[in-house]
Amino acid sequence: MNLIVAPEALADTWPKVERWLAAAVDRNQGDENLLDVLLAIARGHYLLWHEDGKWAAVVQIVKFPRQTVATVLYCGGSDLEAMKAAFEYGRQWAREHGIDVVRTYGRKGWARVIGLEQQGVILQAGV
Predict the structure, then answer these.
(1) pTM for the whole thing?
(2) Are strands 55-63 and 68-77 parallel, antiparallel or unpaired?
(3) Which residues are 56's β-sheet partners?
(4) What is the three-class DSSP state of 11?
(5) Phi/psi of residue 50, each to 5°?
(6) List of long-range contacts for 10-15, beta carbons under 8 Å, 24+ apart
(7) What digits encode the pLDDT tens for the residues 50-96?
(8) What are the b/e assignments for 28-47, b being 16+ CB within 10 Å?
(9) What is the largest CA-CA distance in the chain?
(10) Confidence at residue 80, expressed as pLDDT on a 0 to 100 scale
(11) Left if phi > 0, otherwise alpha if psi is -120 to 50, otherwise beta: which for 98?
(12) Which domains does the chain have, with CATH numbers?
């Protein structure tokens, strides 16, 4: 099973996932818009994960001095069970690729849905 969209498949895949990712990006902290996300995927800064007709996720991998972290930045879809299964597959993929931690930002309910441990909260104020 390979869920990562290859760069040459992005043009065909993007129309299938755009609405799901647009809804997720609309809930972010204002760091980027949907075009920014598309460009980051096209440039290889983010990975697009996708299972046709079921879900899509955008993942950023960062090597910090003490660990490598895969952060699920945006996720959406029409099949919650498939998303849960994909998250478990993603954890296995991360282990196989030397990633120490899988992290995500999202609504509180996601912790319960995919069985993650809450590590804190995001606090933000405009200046």
Answers:
(1) 0.86
(2) antiparallel
(3) 50, 76
(4) helix
(5) -160, 140
(6) 10/41, 10/42, 10/48, 13/48, 13/50, 14/38
(7) 999 899 999 999 999 999 999 999 998 888 888 888 888 888 999 99
(8) eeeebebeebbebbeeeebb
(9) 45
(10) 81
(11) left
(12) 7-114 (3.40.630.30)
